[in-house]
Design a protein that fits this description.
229 residues, mainly alpha, 3 domains, 14 helices
Length: 229
């Protein structure tokens, strides 16, 4: 029942945000194809009616359900409602997991609420939820887009392991958005400071293939590390 409930909520949210392709795919999975024309016309407000129906039947929410709803609200840029839903989740004494925090962090960064994102980062650490590469990629991308390059560099350089530093750009592209010139430069500089020359060169090549150029600091660090030799 929990899986079906979460899937149906996801369908409602995708439909309300005009993500017809996702709705269509979800309906095929759940064998709801005959109802596609009706479902795709629904609005996010419909989700509230469904939720009230679950409450009336005393159906308990779980973390998966809340994560699905949070994801849909942030996709629809309904940031205030997403944060309110997070408070509702806590009020029901459910423990947010890593996906919950990463979803909220991504929503906050999308809304350029970088200070709030950092606060959530500290909260999740205090709650014993360790950030992963996805977490860092979300925050660093948000910092770069907000022009806070110094903080982004410091955060990159504070990554616990070299492996996380190496894979951060790939994770950023997979979970957030394709890196731009600024994010490439910040991350390449971080790799060079860690003496990961081979990885830095690989990202430099990829950067060039995408039509971006290294900035003066990146070039200087390559020369200092004999990266072009």
């Amino acid at each position: 029942m929990g899986c079906l409930k979460s899937s149906f909520l996801s369908i409602l949210i995708f439909a309300s945000t005009a993500r017809v392709k996702h709705t269509f795919h979800s309906l095929l999975i759940l064998n709801y194809f005959p109802f596609f024309d009706s479902v795709k016309k629904m609005r996010v407000s419909t989700m509230s009616l469904i939720c009230r129906g679950f409450d009336a039947n005393k159906t308990a929410y779980d973390v998966v359900t809340f994560n699905t709803m949070l994801h849909g609200l942030f996709l629809a840029c309904r940031f205030a409602e997403g944060l309110k839903l997070f408070k509702d989740m806590q009020a029901q004494q459910l423990t947010p997991d890593l996906l919950t925090y990463n979803t909220i962090l991504k929503g906050l960064c999308m809304n350029k609420q970088i200070a709030e994102a950092f606060s959530f980062l500290h909260v999740m650490e205090e709650k014993g939820v360790n950030p992963d590469t996805t977490t860092y990629s979300i925050i660093i991308y948000g910092l770069c887009k907000d022009g806070k390059l110094g903080i982004a560099r410091n955060l990159f350089n504070s990554l616990p392991s070299k492996e996380e530093a190496k894979y951060l750009l790939k994770e950023m592209e997979r979970n957030v958005c394709a890196p731009d010139s600024v994010t490439y430069n910040v991350c390449i500089q971080g790799l060079l400071k860690r003496k990961l020359l081979a990885e830095a060169k690989a990202f430099l090549d990829e950067m060039h293939r995408r039509g971006f150029s290294p900035d003066a600091t990146t070039v200087s660090l390559f020369l200092e590390n004999e990266g072009f030799r």
